[in-house]
Structure formats: structure tokens, C-alpha cells
Amino acid sequence: MKKTTVLLLAGGLTAVSACKSSQTETTSVNTETTTEATATAETTLDYPDTKKTDHVDTYHGKQVADPYRWLETHTDEVDQWIKAQNEVTQEYLGDIDFRDNIKARLTEIWNYPKYGAPFKEGGKYYFYKNDGLQNQSVLYVQETLESEPKVFFDPNKLSSDGTVALSAFAFSKDGKHVAVGTSSGGSDWNTYQVMDVATGKMLNDKLEWVKFSGPSWYKDGFFYSRYDAPTEGNKLANKNEFHKVYYHKIGTPQSQDKLVYEDKAHALRNFYGQTTDDERFLILNASEGASGANALYYKDLTDPKSTIKPIVDNFESEYNVVDNFGDKLLVMTNKNAPRYRLVMIDSKKPQEANWKTIVPESANVMQSVSTVGGRIIASYMKDATSQVVVYDQNGKQLNTVELPTLGTVSGFGGDQKDKETFFTFTSFTYPPTIYRYDVPNNKVTQFRKTEVNVDTDAFETKQVFYTSKDGTKVPMFIVHKKGLKLDGTNPTYLYAYGGFNISMTPSFSIANMLWLENGGVYAMPNLRGGGEYGEDWHKAGMTPNKQNVFDDFIGAAEYLINQKYTSSERLAVAGGSNGGLLVGAFMTQRPELAKVALPAVGVMDMLRFHKFTIGWAWVPEYGSSDDAAQFENLYKFSPLHNIKEGVKYPATLVKTADHDDRVVPAHSFKFISELQAKGAPGNPYLIRVDVRAGHGAGKPTSLVIQEYADTYAFIYKNMGVNPYEGEAQNK
């Protein structure tokens, strides 16, 4: 398949799904009242007055109050509320005397060159590089691997504050043009333009309202997916419906783009079109939700009379077309194989009975597959760490690719004719290192090593398996300084995700280095709901089984405390997006178990998440309040609806952004309002709202550093730790 498309969307809640018609009934929305809550950390905090209404919804006969419904809309009143909340938060953070020390150290260690693996287009090599503190990485080009690199495209020039980011970058087959996708302020909405490679100039082509797409070239144009333009005034919250596939021809206005595919009968389906490398086929993936299952269609582009035909016309399993060999499609699927297998499908006889297994399911989870140099290169997961196996085109195993240690690989892109490919290896204490792989000779050589201003050899990583509530064994990585004393006093940062078949594997974070060098412990469990052990592991943490995920996270915290890595007074729990829901459920179910809670861009209102933007896509993962049984399950763990009056919750810093149109910020706004109103005094309950930022993708380096500085300062203050006193610094 086309390997030049670069999608820089944040992982997680991105795909699509269907939900049933709403049975929610609004019974009243009248009298306005106000409430003021205060909580005490070291000093009493005066939170902004947050208006309450008597709005009540009825779900299957049960009345549920929603006093902060007004925070779901984008109005001047909401903007003033955001401003007031940010002022309280920034005053609190500004009074932490070591916050500037943290930011200075983060800035110091962040300032190192960061490279992406090279890839070839039009006979030239391209790679991304960030000099250190640039807000966005720059794309470079070089004639050979030895020649002097030149700047090809610099997204830092697109905005003065670095908030316009590349979201897609795809070269045409002849290498003469490139489709450039950009997003502004972290929004999922994309704008596509076309660039002339030889001159570096943008053509007049401009495509708007692109979302959940990638440009896929065919002849003198490309396929892409978009929605109709949203209604004005609430484009960051409007529900996304009726995704369509278009073909754009270079040099023509968007109004003349050809509609290739739409489904008027199913508003809540998304469609993603890709062309094979030889431009023989258009492959159409259709999805009904973020659970991963998809239908698969194709069109023979060499036949003018060809129509779009189904290969699989249901949403029971996953299908990903890797490549084609003439009429035949190489497809990675979990159909009858929860840990995935590789099959060959004849486009002229696509019925399942005719499928040929090329690489069968194994004990390990197949993560990705590419075809380079006449080989099939498959990356696997074993206990959340990478292994790479090379096969011939008939599925015969030839060899494995040698990796430096336990960690995570990515890359191996290229074409069937290429003799070389590149991959990146990383782990918790192993900065991303790029390797060149000589395909015919199965030879790995280091291509580019990352140098950081931290002694990574001072830390160690171990993997443990702890027992969750129902007896399930759950793996967890634990990283800390060598020689750490297990005396229950170590500040510990527990981070997880647990959903959407997304696997949490070892990776390097320069921000984590600050935590580790100051004696902190970093722990990352592989909760059910993820993809670490295939689809069975995923299903064990979705819809009616979602509580398993929260129990796994609670079990991780209990293990760290029982094994004396830390104590409840020195434990911070964190997660973003679906992980924000995880933290919200953790802190409302076991508020005494952690000192600090950090829910970021979280799904906190489980009764209304499907009402906004792409939220309907998460119904297969969570369930829907429109269904009576699923409503009861959601209501039990919905963070917003489980905050109780007078309970002392962990010191909480909710993080969100005003341009988040993935998980709209209203989730966080309503959650913190309820927490400030009901939470018992003793800990601060604050919200930090980034302006001109979104769900996480494309966030400028400067904003990322500031966010980490604020977060660490908040954690340390509430744990009673000053990382810059005495021997704790140890840099």
C-alpha cells in the first residue's frame, strides 16, 4: 500500500461507530442558581462561581441531573469561565517555588536533535528532524544518505506560535507533487494543499473539512475523505455524520471533486480510501466504530467499468490490506485469529472459502506487516515488547531481525523493489535509535543514534505480573534508578490507557527522565482493553467488561504500594483520552488510594459522549446510554456521575484544551465543576485549559514543556516533595 501518507493524529479515540437513536428525554432546563466551593491544600482555594441549572434528563425512567449542561456550548460565558478557572490554576502553580527549576531542567534535557527514520520518494531520501526545541519537526531531503540534507518543508513557518502542524504528507507516484495536510490549534479538521516538489511552491488547490483521512494518490490526483461543512458557531463540537470519499484532480477547485463513495443509509460510518502501490486497486475501509472491526471493499482502477465491490461486508473483524501481488491482495486480519494472521485474497474470487493463509496465527500478536525487497516483514508483540520475523512471499519463515534489547520497533517501510529499509527502536531508557536493515542479507546496522543529556544507564526496567481483582495476571513495566530502596517513600507515577485495542509498549520519554533522575518510579501496566494479547484481551475490557480495566489499574496501584515501591501519599495516577476516563473512574472508586490524579482530555460524561463530534464511534467500546442495560453499566462508572458529596478526592489537575474536537472539553469542564462543588476540603481540585491546542496531536514543543513543568510541580507539591532540595536532585 502507499507508505508515504503520514498521519499525525493522536492515538486512541479516532475511529467510527454507530449508535442507536436517542431515548434521552429532557424534562426541564429552567431556573439558574450558583454555587461556590472551596477546598484546602496548604491554603484555602477560592474557586470561581460556577452557575448551576436544574436541567434534568430522563434515561429509561431514571432522572439524572445535569446542572452544568451550559458548559457544553461555546459561548462568551463559557470563555469567561475558562479564563477564571485558568487564573486560579495558574496562581496556584505560580506559587510553587521550584516550578521554574523544573521547567529549566526540562528545557535543558529536551534540547537535543530528534530524527525520524529516512524514507525514499522519487529516488531521494526524506526524513524529519527537530533541532531540539523547535515547535514542529522539519522535513529534510537529501540525494543520498551521505549528501548534505536540505530543508524541504518547515511547518514552523505556518504560524508564529507553532500551533499549525502537519497532519498528512503524501508524495505522488512520480514524485512530482506532494499533498500536504495541516491542522490548526490541535483540531482534527484538516486542510489539504498540493505542493510542487521541484519548486517547493504551493499550487492553488485547497481542500477543506477533511477529517479522519489521508491523501492517497492515483495518477494526477488523490482520494481523500471529508465531511460536509459543519454549521457555524460550534464546529468543534458538532456531531460528525455522513463521511464521504472524494477524488481530487490537481489544478481544480474542491467544488469539482468527484464523489467516489457515500452511504446515505448509515450516517455513522466512516470510509477511508487507499490505493495500492501499483495504483491497480482502490481499497475502501468502512468502519462503524473505534473497536477496530471494519468492512472491506475494492475497485479495480484499471477497468473503467469497475464498480466498488465488497470483499467483506460486515463489521465482525479487522482487515488491513498490506499490499497486492497482481490480482491478489495480502491482508492482515483477526478473522478466526484473535492474535492476527496474514491471508491472500483473490480479487476475482474474494469469498472467504477461497482465502489462502500465508502466515498463520502464532502465540504472539502480529502488530504490523510490510513488504520490502521481496520479503514480508512482520512485527509481533510478546508480553508488550517487539519481535520482528521475516518471511518469503509464500509465508516461509526466513529469519528474525536482531534487536538490541526489550523494547518497541516501528518502521520497515518501503516498496517491493527496495533492498533496504529503516526502523526505529526505543525503550523506556533507550532513546529512539534508527537502524538500517539490509533485506537480502538480513543485516542490521546502526544508522543514527540519539544522544541525550541524561545518564540513561543509571536506570533499570523490569516487567512484573500482578493479579487483578478477578485473578487475571496483568503485566506492568516498572522503571527507576538502579539500587532503589523499597521503603514505601518513592514518588511514583502510574500511567495507563486500557482501551480501543491500543497497546502500551516501552518507549522513551525525555520528560520521564526528569521524574526518574529525581528518584521517582515510573510504572505502566498493560490493562485489559488494550491489544497487548490480541482481540480477546481487548474484549475483556470493553462494553460490559469495562470495569475490568479499572480493576486492573487499581490492582497496579495496590501492587506498587504492597511491594513498597511507594505509598498512597506518594502515588500519582495519570492517563489521557480513554486514559482520562480511567483516572476519573479510579479516583471516584478508590479516592484514598492515590495522592494525585491527572485526568487529561478524558471522557468523563459517559451518558452523553456520543452526542459530540466523533464520540458516537466509541459506542462499541463503551456502550450507549440509549440502551437500557448499557445505560446502567455506564452510570455505574461514569466519572462525572460518581462524584459524591463530602468525599476527599486526590489532589486533581484536570487537563484539556479549548480546540479539542476529539474529546470535547465539556467533559472536563463539567467534571471539575462537580468536583469543586462536592469534593471535601484538603486537596486542590483544579483545571488547566490550554488555548489554541487540541487532543494532543501537533502540540508545539513550548506548550508541551510548560505542561510537563506544571504537572510535575503540581505532583511534587501535593506529595510534599521538593525535587531540588538536598540530594534529591542528583543530576
Explain what the structure shows.
There is one protein chain. 16% of the residues lie in helices and 34% in strands. With 731 residues, it is an alpha+beta fold. Among the domains are: 56-108 and 454-719, Rossmann fold (3-Layer(aba) Sandwich), CATH 3.40.50; 161-275, no CATH class. Residues 2-42 and 727-731 have low confidence and may be disordered.
Give the structure's gist in a few sentences.
The protein is α+β, with helices and mostly antiparallel strands.
Question: What are the main properties of this structure?
Answer:
731 residues, alpha+beta, Rossmann fold, five-stranded antiparallel β-sheet, 10 helices, 44 strands, globular
Radius of gyration: 25 Å
CATH architecture of the domain at 56-108 and 454-719: 3-Layer(aba) Sandwich
Mean pLDDT: 89
CATH topology-level fold name of the domain at 56-108 and 454-719: Rossmann fold
- CATH class value of the domain at 56-108 and 454-719: Alpha Beta
Described by strand count, sense and barrel closure, the largest sheet is: 8 strands, mixed
CATH superfamily of the domain at 56-108 and 454-719: Alpha/Beta hydrolase fold, catalytic domain
Task: List segments where confidence is low: pLDDT < 50 over at least 5 consecutive residues.
Answer: 2-42, 727-731
Helix content: 10-25%
How many β-strands, per DSSP? 44
Q: Indicate the overall shape.
A: globular
Give the N-to-C terminal Cα separation. 46 Å
Helix vs. strand class: alpha+beta
Strand content: 25-35%
Main-sheet strand order equals 37-38-40-39-41-42-43-44
Counting DSSP H or I runs of 4 or more residues, the number of helices is 10
Domain Peptidase S9A N-terminal: 48-449
EC number: 3.4.21.26
Catalytic activity: Hydrolysis of Pro-|-Xaa >> Ala-|-Xaa in oligopeptides
Keywords: Hydrolase, Protease, Serine protease, Signal
